[in-house]
Amino acid sequence: MLQSDIMVSSFYIRHPNNYFIGNRAAGSDYYGFNFDLPDYPTGSSASKDICPPGNPLASFTNNVAHSNTFHGLRINNLIARTYPCSDTKNEYDPNYLWSANPSIPTVFSSFLSYKNLKHGFVAENAGNYILTNFTVAENLFSGISVYVANYTK
């Protein structure tokens, strides 16, 4: 079994360039919305020319997540950039990512997350996010938790 088979989500997302509008994610065993982005696709879609973490989110608006066992909205490894597959490493210039490959803001709008048993919204390895009309309430651990990206990978 894959890790994704064990950690069930109402919406399991492997590439951000999609439209998520007016959805409801309720009562999942783990996550409501789970953006779990691999560095590159695997299996029959394997390619080093496609880099999900660097691609922009098309749209995430008017969505609701409630009563999930873990998080309402979980994002792992979404750092949209101007050039999604560009090398982000430069040992001589720690600001290389920002100067040669600027980030693209990722907008999450009109989101409601409540009564989840951990966090309403958690972002791990996070990029440049804009949260508008974002409501989190009665989540057991916290409403919003963000862990900054590690740009040295």
Q: Can you walk through the features of this model?
A:
The structure is a single chain. Helix content is 6%, strand content 41%. It is mainly beta and 153 residues long. A five-stranded parallel sheet has the order 1-4-6-8-10, with no helix packed on it. Strands 2, 3, 5, 7 and 9 form a five-stranded parallel sheet that branches. The protein has two helices and ten strands. It has one domain (3-148).
Q: What key phrases describe this protein's structure?
A:
single chain; 153 residues; mainly beta; five-stranded parallel beta sheet; 6% helix
Q: How is the topology of this model organized?
A:
Elements: H1 3-6, E1 9-13, E2 19-21, E3 24-26, E4 31-36, E5 59-66, E6 73-76, H2 96-100, E7 106-114, E8 119-126, E9 129-137, E10 142-148
Parallel strand pairs: 1-4, 2-5, 3-5, 4-6, 5-7, 6-8, 7-9, 8-10
Largest sheet descriptor? 5 strands, parallel
Q: Could you tell me how far the N terminus lies from the C terminus, measured between alpha carbons in angstroms?
A: 27 Å
Shape: globular
The oligomeric state is single chain
Helix content estimate: under 10%
Strand order in the sheet with the most strands: 1-4-6-8-10
Helix and strand pattern: HEEEEEEHEEEE
* Share of β-strand residues: 35-45%
- SS summary, helix count: 2
Query: What is the SS-derived class?
Result: mainly beta
Q: How many separate structural domains? A: 1
| Average pLDDT reading | 88
> Which residue ranges are poorly predicted, with pLDDT under 50 across at least 5 consecutive positions?
none
Strand runs, count: 10
From the alpha-carbon coordinates, what is the Rg to the nearest angstrom? 16 Å
